[in-house]
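Page 37, continued from 36.
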């Protein structure tokens, strides 16, 4: 009897070890479908793309894989594009995968007060009011924030982009200029700014840039193409390019330290 008991003990030990090893293997080799489904903005129809993108980017987290694929950056820019939904909403998104109709003109375009522009600039009314308040408050503190570019029509962007292509070629032009229909400026929710003294390309070197970095979200504006996020946005860093999204979204984006593209696929697209 004693001998039999001694034989059972090692057997139980071996079975326990086997169970632990199997459990560990199972936890570390979850089915890809189950793993991606844990992400709130998972889309079943993109399962194959998630798997392909993960094979190419094994160091990215599951959430990053889903987010990148949902934005579209697992594919070449300007491929598999579709018309953006939510037209005339402050949270609409345009990027290199979502475009605006050629004939799209946003509702309630109004001219920005010339006090805060270099002349004849238009924004959607809500964005215009928010910008003028921001510029007014900045001025009271001794800072000058001026709009040098705002709403652009499809045809205007077409001419602008073609000139950039003639100057630098398509590949380089695509890093800093949107193709017609894909430009945020067509939304009427975007401002390019300077401080009157320095060209907008050098806005980052101004005290106004520091002020904007601290205060823009309080008025509903975000830095649309931040440094270090070029892979996400598809564009070079632009210290002068700000997008109106409303106070709540702007402050959420700043707090989460993400781009509008990421925020859109996580919190807007499916809601």
């Amino acid at each position: 009897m004693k001998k039999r008991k001694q034989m059972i003990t090692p057997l139980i030990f071996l079975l326990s070890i086997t169970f632990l090893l199997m459990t560990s293997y199972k936890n570390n080799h979850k089915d890809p479908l189950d793993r991606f489904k844990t992400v709130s903005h998972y889309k079943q129809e993109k399962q194959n793309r998630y798997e392909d993108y993960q094979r190419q980017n094994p160091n990215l987290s599951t959430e990053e894989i889903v987010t990148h694929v949902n934005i579209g950056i697992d594919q070449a820019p300007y491929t598999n594009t579709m018309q953006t939904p939510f037209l005339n909403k402050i949270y609409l998104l345009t990027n290199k995968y979502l475009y605006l109709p050629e004939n799209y003109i946003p509702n309630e375009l109004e001219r920005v007060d010339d006090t805060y522009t270099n002349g004849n600039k238009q924004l959607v009314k809500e964005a215009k009011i928010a910008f003028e308040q921001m510029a007014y408050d900045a001025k009271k503190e001794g800072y000058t924030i001026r709009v040098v570019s705002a709403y652009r029509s499809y045809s205007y962007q077409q001419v602008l982009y073609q000139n950039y292509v003639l100057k630098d070629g398509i590949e380089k032009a695509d890093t800093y200029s949107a193709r017609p229909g894909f430009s945020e400026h067509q939304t009427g929710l975007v401002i390019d700014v300077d401080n009157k003294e320095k060209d907008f390309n050098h806005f980052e070197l101004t005290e106004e840039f520091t002020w904007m970095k601290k205060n823009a979200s309080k008025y509903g504006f975000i830095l649309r193409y931040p440094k270090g996020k070029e892979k996400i946005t598809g564009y070079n860093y632009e210290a002068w390019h700000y997008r109106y999204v409303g106070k709540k979204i702007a402050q959420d984006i700043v707090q989460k330290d993400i781009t509008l593209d990421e925020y859109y696929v996580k919190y807007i697209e499916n809601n």
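Residues 24-29 have pLDDT under 50 and may be disordered. Flag for discussion at group meeting. Residues 2-71 form one domain.
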